[in-house]
Amino acid sequence: MKILDKAVFVGPSLYAHFPVIRLDIDLGPLEEWPSGKLGRSFTDPLLAALPGLHDHTCSYGKPGGFVRRLTEGDGTWMGHILEHVAIELQNVAGETVTFGKTRSNGPPGHYSVVYHYEQQDVGLEAGQLALTLLHSLLPRELRPEGSVPPGFDFAAERDEFIRFTQRRALGPSTVALVRAAEERRIPWIRLNDQSLIQFGHGRYQQRIQATVTSRTSHIAVELASDKEETNRMLGNLGLPVPQQRLVQQADDAVAAAERIGYPVVVKPYNANHGRGISIHLTDGDQVRLAFDVAREHSRSVIVESFITGEDHRMLVINGELVAVAKRVPGHVMGDGIHTIEQLVDEVNQDPRRGVGHEKVLTRLEFDHQAETLLAAKGYTRDTVPASGEQVFLRLTGNLSTGGTAIDMTDLVHPDNIEMAVRAVKAIGLDVGGVDFLSTDITESYKEVGGAICEINAAPGFRMHMAPSEGTPRDVGGRALDMLFPPGTPSRIPIAAITGTNGKTTTARMLAHIQKLAGHHVGLTSTDGVYINGQRTVPGDMTGPVATRMVLSDPSVDVAVLEIARGGLLRAGMGVRHCDVGAVLNVKADHLGLRGIGTLEQLAEVKRIVVEVARDTAILNADDPLCLKMADYTEAKHLCYVTTNPTHELVGEHIQAGGRGMVLESGIKGQMITIYDRGAHIPLLWTHLIPATLEGRATHNVQNAMFAAAMAFSMGLKLEDIRHGLRTFDTTFFQAPGRMNIYDEHAFKVILDYGHNPTAIQAMCDLVDRLEVTGRRLVVLAAPGDRRDEDIVEIGQIAAGRFARYICRRDDQLRGRGSDEVPNLLREALLASGVPADEILVIPEETVAVDTALREADPGDLLLIFGDAITRTWKQVIQFRPEATPRIAERPRISRPEPVVAALAVPMLEDRRREFVRDSRGVRLAREEHAD
Predict the structure, then answer these.
(1) pLDDT tens digits for 562-579?
(2) Cα–Cα 20 to 30 A to 397, which of 73, 103, 178, 815?
(3) Which residues have C-beta within 8 Å of that of residue 328, sequence separation ≥ 6?
(4) CA distance 630 to 613
């Protein structure tokens, strides 16, 4: 069994609407060895290694379902087992994942294994460890050579995997905030590999790092980190604090202890989690030793008076005490029978304890501090403490070192509540933890004493969320309510657009409408990311990375996302939900790539956009494949777009009060009309939209209808929609590569990025409708990764419409020969009846375009299907007929066998050389042209 390919989907995909990993595997000989055939020698060790597999429901829908599939009858196949093992390994490491599915994929023994993940690296590592574990359990004759490392110890590898997971996992406090955000439907984005989280999108975002928020004052954090200054400031306010001295030398530490009076506490100046603290020191030798321990964590050391009492953490959020926990250092309770080491093992059996932050409690460990505390009592690991004797293995009650917490929130004396709130406000924190020592927190500190040891600027939430005893407190929710008070927006409107053709133009139209309506728009498209109309990142930016860029930008208040097929198949959508999702059409393009071979499969991919739309799904009612998508959306509203005013289904939908965008005929031409809740709203005549070329560019009429439908569904005013459509044109500035017209030459040029049969059809139809006094010429091309039949269809569509055809290829060959695509186009043109002397094969785009420009006469119309759009546009606008081309611009002659294609070379000075093919082969014709 081996992994052939891996894919990580960060959002909605063909497999799920949440993050999943897909492993494409080849079982090899194991295709003939299901678990039932392998028998109990395989299944029993597997279940012993991962007993949690007993809880997997599988297809039976109840615990034990997977074990039934594993052990009954023939059992199940290894790909399915790999899926469940990868899921369970993540569960063991503290991740909460349950989803998975395995399907055959292609030849026998090939499967796609899909499973949920929370952290990408962890999910991938789980798949690899699962594979190694399964190989290790196979009989040696079935085990692939080198598949199991020498000395493989699953228990050790499992623990290392848990540590690997914890190093990458969000901390428990951050998890609490994330869970609270999810409960409130507040979106979140992890911004780095640590705990920097963005809550909300665009202009509404708030950020947190652990429990430090974007509202936390930097000065307040600095003060809280300065234990000496904090002590002084609180003392000046009359709040209870211990006496304290800051020192840098051991002798100074001893002197400070003697001035303060024993017993004392020695701790690092700026450490946390209880690191380096020594308490109840009674002489100079102990102070010197404690000083050295503290210096391991900080250059400066604090000596302070020892306050008798129990350790309490008091959490203040937004000026209110929200939780209090009494912290008990890690310890065991003697029973008079077992040794300390045995008692530690027993405590660690508690299912709430795990490695690091894996669980709500942390395992006890024997380390230097534990051994020191035992030695101070004259104990060792083998000592049997008396029944009821408490043996401490830690000095402080931090949960991260094995301590426990008891919730005391409802029992705190009001004076102590006021004290904690005053202390945090004095420092200036929005979220602060007060470490307070008191013999009885239910009594006022004014009566029983006590002292504030320190103020924490990033207090942990774990002890309050999951105390060992008492009521759990929703502290994460309180923090989120501070950042996003009820009724405060956290999301910006998001529009997602997909389809085979027109999505870039439609996205640009919608962004333009929104911008003129006063919004700061983030746009992703095939030529880059645009923020408020300015391109910030060039390139094809239609995948999850671009989506994240837009949603993370704090200036953006509306997102318009062009969603392409490639991004969906590579990594899914970059956002879990959109407000408005539109599918413009589903036409033949990219078929045969990434496992998508039919239009129905392509429709399933594009359908994802409306599956995740929450408010409105907008569908092309004139496309049967789009119509079927209506059954898969859970959006509140469904809007149909049709150019057929007599569309029966749309008519019924409108009569029922549904929303529709319909093209209707009138005295002045065609009117884009909105129907909504029984209302009939004429929007705009198509000839008033510049991008439609007075209504002749019917594909842009449809694009405008979709842009208007989305804008209307996003709540824009009708006048804003009209104004946006009337000011959007197809200039290179507004829509590069989308029907860009240049008429500053004696002839007219149209540059378009059309690269599939439907797009070619739309542009050729447009050219047919335009009035041309001269000839029509075309530079024709197709991407190399399209199927032969798609390339042939492009040639067939163009055939008979032009007086000259110049066939070229793209810069990127995508697996084709250097002149394979242009010659396929040529053969299709010839087969469609185009005379050979009207066809030129010039593979290189720059030379092909230059030849076309030089052939164009006054009054002609030249249609160029471009690949490198910016380069080609510059070539068009900078063209000068009188200029002599550089030698580097001369075309390479293409000589396919057995017949040589017709070729042309650009005009050199006053001569043009043309190669024209005749029925016998090739003859050279030379014409002289006078200036």
Answers:
(1) 999 889 999 999 999 999
(2) 178
(3) 310, 311, 397, 403, 404, 405, 406, 468
(4) 11
